[in-house]
Design a protein that fits this description.
It contains 16 helices and four strands. The protein has 415 residues and is mainly α. Strand 1 and strand 2 form a beta hairpin.
Length: 415
């Protein structure tokens, strides 16, 4: 099974990651709990660190060797499908090349299932390259190819079209396609994916400020997942209900939801989900603290202590699991918590790590020069203000000429 992730959003507690799993010989939907929101996305970007990239390339090389000696049959199509998928995280152009090979061979074999696979792969690689309009074109082509009675695959296409519109903050068409996917799943009585569709509709309502409707749909999804005893789905919906409560500024109720979701994730041992819920709890406690008139009262101080504890655990887990984008976002929240606690040295160091990691991530395509210059300029300003001698060295890592990550060395003196 494959787990794929895609980044949504900009604000810290509203950042989105959407995950799903795909089987090699057929497409199957399964939603995944995420920080702030959960959507179901079939076509997305495989997230991996540089070590994982090397493993992926090694696997691709092995598959290329095997596929070169295979006859033109459906097994070859499936292996080309796998190669195209693996390339999404390394080289979208190569991914498209092998996606087109899937389509060409499937047409030669008159295999409609393979043709559909190929178009889904092309959409996936377009998303990887950030070309969402092109991805939509391929998904609409899939809808044209599919038989009207193929409700399961039509529902999948509707879901992914809705997700792309959601990403582009086009909530009206997003809601339309989520509703279409829900109707298809109702026809085939697929309760698990009905729950997914209900949850996605709830998220659109939350984004558009219809919070009571958001709660209604999340609770319907939760009820279905409870019937199915789907712990992952239960945790997802509980976390999303907590997010609605956060939007309503009902932080106490939000904390109850996040705590329940955290317990379920801890039972499963799923570190990414554990980190997400620690982060949501940390931010909810920070909000409670900010709302206290007497910041020195025992209750207020406990809110801040709880916030720090959860944010520290969240940040450590994101670093451990290689979720560096989440890591840099939470460093900023942790810096705020330290500053509110009066621990300015820790706040300063966390903020330095935040800006360095952020610049490293968002300038990776421009190589190290721009990220190093921006970060160095900021460090110069801080050195001048605080009289310190902090420095940073950023080195792009490559394996066989392929970008494989970034090494960041930060030297921070103890104040």
């Amino acid at each position: 099974m494959r787990c794929i992730c895609f980044f949504f959003g900009t604000s810290t507690h509203r950042s989105l990651r959407i995950c799903c799993k795909l089987a090699l010989d057929h497409l199957r939907l399964m939603a995944y709990s995420v920080r702030a929101f959960s959507l179901l996305l079939l076509t997305s970007v495989l997230c991996a660190g540089h070590a994982a990239h090397a493993q992926i390339q090694q696997a691709i090389d092995s598959m290329l060797y095997v596929v070169s000696g295979m006859p033109d049959d459906t097994n070859k199509v499936l292996l080309l499908d796998e190669i195209s998928y693996r390339y999404t995280s390394l080289d979208a152009a190569k991914g498209k090349e092998y996606g087109n090979s899937v389509i060409q061979l499937s047409k030669k074999l008159n295999w409609k299932k393979g043709i559909i696979k190929g178009h889904n792969l092309l959409a996936l690689n377009e998303i990887s390259a950030g070309r969402y309009s092109a991805a939509l074109d391929y998904l609409f082509t899939v809808l044209k190819i599919l038989d009207k009675q193929d409700r399961a695959n039509r529902a999948i296409a509707y879901t992914n079209i809705g997700n792309i519109y959601y990403f582009q903050q086009q909530f009206e068409p997003s809601l339309k396609y989520y509703a279409l996917s829900l109707e298809e799943y109702k026809h085939i009585d697929h309760k698990r994916n009905m729950a997914v569709a209900l949850g996605n509709i709830g998220l659109v309502h939350m984004k558009t400020g219809k919070l009571e409707d958001a709660l209604l749909y999340q609770r319907q999804a939760l009820e279905l997942n409870r019937q199915l005893q789907d712990k992952a789905g239960i945790a997802r919906n509980i976390g999303n209900i907590g997010m609605v409560y956060t939007e309503q500024k009902q932080f106490g109720r939000a904390i109850e939801m996040y705590t329940e979701a955290l317990k379920l994730k801890e039972e499963s041992g799923e570190k990414y989900g554990i980190a997400i819920n620690h982060g949501n709890l940390g931010e909810a406690y920070l909000s409670l603290y900010s709302g206290c008139n007497n910041k020195t009262a025992p209750a207020a101080r406990q809110f801040l202590i709880n916030a720090r504890s959860h944010l520290e655990k969240c940040t450590a887990l994101f670093k451990e699991t290689g979720r560096m984008d989440n890591y840099q976002l939470n460093l900023l929240e942790l810096s705020k918590a330290y500053a509110l606690s009066g621990d300015y040295k820790e706040a300063y160091q966390a903020y330095l790590l935040h800006i360095t990691q952020r610049d490293s991530i968002y300038n990776i395509e421009k190589k190290k020069s721009l990220g190093l210059n921006i970060t160095s300029e900021r460090l110069d300003l801080m050195n001048e203000k605080y009289g310190t001698d902090a420095s940073v060295e950023i080195t792009d890592l490559y394996e066989n000429g392929t970008p494989a990550g970034t090494e960041v060395l930060i030297k921070i003196p103890i104040l």
